[in-house]
């Protein structure tokens, strides 16, 4: 049981913490949910007592977050005194991985909104016919609407790139979301995005 997320069409994204043992191998992640101790600590904490080196148990040499899609985060130190901090740090790493992976996967709501805008603009774009309903056939309104959308989209895109950079996403990650190259993304947006010192 891990941090459940969505499916990007290439596989589900579910993350969990695993202990990295002395030989570098990963301990299996816990899937049980009937243990009171695990329930109290949450399943992602199980490494902190199952691999603590006490009572003959193996001791974790580190921990990492892994995802059902096959992605593995870097090995991190295991802090047995404060597993909460480890869990939060690793969860942030996984959320970042999932955000990058899902950056081109539209939610159902966004897909419905985009489909509705597209259908409306296409309906407005039909040429006027005698006897046609003015509300339904307005090609000049379609021109105006698409112009507003294009101009707005450029501003929204700049703001989104600024927000992504402020959240410390790399130009590579931003380029993936823009479906372009890192160089093209940087050239287009560098003047709109202040670089971190």
Notable traits:
single chain, elongated, 46% helix, mainly alpha, 197 residues, 7 helices, 3-stranded antiparallel sheet
Secondary-structure blueprint:
Elements: E1 3-7, E2 12-20, H1 36-41, H2 47-50, E3 62-67, H3 83-101, H4 108-124, H5 139-166, H6 171-178, H7 182-189
Antiparallel strand pairs: 1-2, 2-3
Explain what you see.
This protein is mostly helical. Helices cover 46% and strands 10% of the residues. It contains seven helices and three strands; from the N terminus they run E-E-H-H-E-H-H-H-H-H. It has helices spanning 36-41, 47-50, 83-101, 108-124, 139-166, 171-178, 182-189, and strands at 3-7, 12-20, 62-67. A three-stranded antiparallel beta sheet has the order 1-2-3, covered by helices on one side. Helix 6 (171-178) crosses helix 7 (182-189).
Total count of strands:
3
Major beta sheet summary? 3 strands, antiparallel
Strand order of the largest sheet: 1-2-3
Structural class, judged by helices and strands? mainly alpha
Rounded to the nearest angstrom, the distance between the terminal CA atoms is 40 Å
- Strand residue percentage: 5-15%
Principal-axes shape call: elongated
Mean pLDDT value: 83
In helices, the fraction of residues equals 40-55%
Summarize the structure.
This protein has 197 residues and is mainly alpha-helical.
């Amino acid at each position: 049981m891990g941090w459940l997320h969505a499916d990007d069409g290439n596989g589900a994204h579910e993350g969990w913490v695993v202990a990295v043992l002395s030989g570098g191998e990963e301990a299996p992640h816990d899937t049980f949910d009937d243990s009171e101790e695990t329930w109290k600590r949450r399943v992602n904490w199980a490494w902190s007592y199952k691999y603590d080196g006490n009572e003959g148990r193996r001791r974790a040499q580190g921990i990492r977050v892994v995802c059902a899609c096959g992605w593995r985060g870097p090995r991190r130190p295991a802090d047995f005194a404060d597993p909460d901090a480890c869990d939060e740090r690793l969860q942030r790493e996984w959320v970042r991985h999932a955000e990058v992976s899902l950056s081109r996967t539209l939610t159902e709501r966004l897909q419905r909104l985009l489909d509705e805008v597209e259908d409306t603009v296409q309906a407005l774009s039909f040429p006027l016919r005698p006897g046609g309903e003015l509300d339904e056939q307005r090609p000049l309104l379609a021109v105006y609407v698409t112009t507003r959308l294009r101009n707005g989209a450029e501003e929204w895109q700049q703001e989104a790139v600024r927000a992504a950079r402020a959240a410390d996403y790399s130009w590579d990650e931003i380029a993936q979301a823009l479906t372009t190259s890192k160089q093209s993304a940087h050239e287009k947006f560098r003047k709109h995005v202040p670089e971190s010192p």
